[in-house]
Specification:
It is a single chain. The protein is mainly α. It contains 14 helices and 2 strands, in the order αααααααααααααββα. A two-stranded antiparallel ribbon has the order 1-2. Helix 4 packs across helix 6. It is globular, with a radius of gyration of 20 Å. The two termini are 33 Å apart. The N terminus and C terminus are likely disordered.
Length: 342
């Protein structure tokens, strides 16, 4: 770091000490961008229901740098969005933006992604980074905006191209791709990306059965309920983002999303329902996903289903805390009740 850069950073720390005090740490330099990502599938069976512990451990080691980077970006974006004044928000917003810019300039995740698992990691990271950026965009200088937005668009184009060419199943992976495309479209004002996201999302909504289940997720055996919750995360977020743009995705396919939300919530409250639907006992305890129920209830009202397990209000792949996202995009006073973030 040059002397002038060091001095500028010192001024930031002193000038925005109140905001910095609320963060986990001062804004350190980001880790080197991860350009290439080599991952292997960590399931031991074709259905994707049995996790191989050794493969999963190797996967976690390989993805740790990417996930730690995204955790830092989303944590500071949330902190900035919660600040009462623009001045107090400047430090964490700049910290989040700095990490985005460094990885954007380094071409992060635009190199060799040699497996479908690596492509999935890119899709999830794209969604989280783009949603976090939406929270801080107003604090980012024009030049840095261009760097970040150009990179997000490059990630979106690469992720979409790889998904199409790989022949991947149109299951939750497609919905996460759609969320990344939609968030990038909103960040960069690219209507073509929004149209692509809409097409994917509508196909997903069309796959929801009359009983509220998704056939491709039901086929995941003992993890069918887990993957229904995981699919709810991008689909509900997508519908909420569309609502902010004046589009009604709730009524699509005879209110299919509402059926999925209710069936999944009821399954989380009583997993025995999915034992019967999937024809196999569900893995317990079931992970309920994150954020999607908060989005739904803030928007559509409580489901009034007893026994739904506590759900984290945020996740790195949803850009951090979803209630902060609601507040950021609506300029309203969302209920910022604190459920576990991770």
């Amino acid at each position: 770091m040059t002397l002038s850069a060091h001095f500028a950073r010192l001024l930031l720390i002193v000038g925005f000490g109140v905001a910095a005090k609320g963060s986990a740490a001062a804004c350190d330099l980001p880790p080197p961008p991860v350009v290439d990502l080599g991952l292997s599938r960590y399931y031991a069976d074709d259905a994707g229901s049995v996790v191989d512990p050794g493969r999963k451990a190797a996967h976690d080691r390989a993805t740790r740098p990417v996930r730690r980077w995204l955790d830092h970006v989303t944590r500071n974006a949330d902190l900035a969005a919660r600040q009462p004044t623009r001045a107090s928000a400047a430090y964490p917003a700049q910290c989040s933006a700095e990490w985005l810019v460094r990885w954007a300039r380094g071409g992060a995740l635009l190199g060799d992604l040699a497996s479908k698992q690596a492509e999935a990691e890119r899709r999830w990271t794209l969604a989280g980074a783009a949603l976090a950026y939406l929270k801080i965009k107003g604090h980012v200088a024009d030049g840095d905006r261009k760097v970040i937005e150009d990179w997000l668009v490059s990630l979106a184009d690469a992720a979409r191209g790889a998904f199409v060419s790989s022949g991947s199943k149109a299951n939750n992976h497609a919905y996460w791709l759609a969320l990344g495309l939609a968030a990038t479209a909103m960040a960069s004002e690219r209507d073509d990306l929004w149209s692509a996201a809409r097409t994917i999302a509508f196909a997903g909504l069309g796959d929801i059965g009359v009983d509220g289940t998704l056939p491709l997720e039901l086929a995941r055996g003992s993890r069918a309920l887990h993957y229904h919750a995981f699919a709810c995360m991008p689909l509900v977020t997508l519908a909420w983002l569309a609502h902010q743009r004046g589009e009604d995705w709730i009524s699509i396919e005879n209110a299919a999303l509402g059926r999925l939300v209710r069936a999944t919530a009821e399954g989380l409250a009583e997993p025995e329902q999915f034992d019967r639907l999937a024809g196999v006992a569900q893995e317990r305890p079931v992970k309920p996903g994150a954020g999607w129920l908060m989005f739904w209830e803030q928007w559509r009202g409580p489901l009034d289903i007893a026994g739904v397990p506590e759900m984290p209000s945020g996740n790195r792949w949803l850009g951090g805390n979803v209630l902060v996202l609601v507040q950021s995009l609506t300029r309203g006073s969302a209920d910022l009740r604190q459920a576990p973030e991770k």
